[in-house]
Design a protein that fits this description.
Length: 124
């Protein structure tokens, strides 16, 4: 009977470890963003907003925006929405001219994991 109890306890500990480690291994994945991927927008955005699957650390997160002819666009400091720790807000400091833009983003989630990606949009 003691061997059976040890196996039950071991199994319970194993299941607990599996379920808690999956949360610890989560990453902040981009869920939505504005402007949207491949969107044609007018007027040009004055802010870029990125929504993630989990909370992010704004001091270790940001974006790079590249416009027509690979000109880098000046953007302000990335900040987290005060009401939503999953949302990163970045002001666009340069007026965007018509053309295609590439947004390259990188974030560190509140659990310390890094993720990155990119998408494009067009200003009419």
């Amino acid at each position: 009977m003691a061997i059976f109890a040890k196996r039950v306890v071991s199994l319970a500990l194993f299941i607990t470890a599996l379920t808690t480690s999956s949360a610890a291994l989560a990453h902040a994945h981009l869920k939505t963003h504005s402007p949207a991927s491949d969107a044609e927008v007018s007027p040009a955005p004055q802010v870029i907003t990125l929504d993630f699957s989990e909370g992010i650390e704004p001091n270790f997160s940001g974006i790079k925006v590249t416009g027509p002819e690979q000109v880098v666009v000046n953007v302000g400091k990335a900040r987290r929405n005060a009401q939503d720790e999953k949302q990163l807000i970045v002001p666009v400091e340069t007026a965007l001219q018509p053309g295609r833009y590439l947004v390259e983003w990188h974030v560190v989630s509140v659990d310390g994991h890094k993720t990155k990606g990119d998408y494009q949009f067009t200003v009419k």
